[in-house]
Amino acid sequence: MKKFLLRLLLLTFVFCYCGNFPCHAFGKPRYDRIYEDMPILDHMYETRLDPEESDDYEKYTVSPYVLVRLPVKLRNKKTVFNQGYYLAKPEKRSGFNFVIFKQNGKVVGCVPVYKKYRVDPAENFPEPEKPKTKWYALPFVMTWNVIKWPFKKLLGNKKRPLRPPRAKAEFELAEDGKYYDMGLYVEDRLYKMLFILEK
Question: Is the pTM of this model over 0.85?
């Protein structure tokens, strides 16, 4: 019984280790397996138009999409991205999590998300430190508060546009420079995508 438990523990350790790190002894490296398992989503936006774009821009004062700079030519399945600037937006449709990339208002490609995490937004987007009011400015601040108090209700009823979601992108080379692993942070979510570097 002890030998059986010891073997079971050893097998569990080996499979857990190979699940988290590249392991050539049990087949293909981790990123090769992830890339092969990703679906091809080139049918999602055949017209190259995003039907939700006008609604997205109507809600916000600035673009709600994340500006991403791709420093090299990248490929994801059938879609090739030349180096340059793209607007990225995470979506979920037909059971797939994916990110659409746009240039000049047109959808250039869809990239499937191989992993989606929940993250702490306070850690990724720390609040800027508010400037302290100097003692000599206090009379002016108090006077301004008294003047604007009667108009606060009138100004408060005015509908303000939404603040765009906080977002940023991070990149990492994987498998000795074969793959380009991209992480897109949007508020409390992290979307992981995988590209092959094109020579």
Answer: no
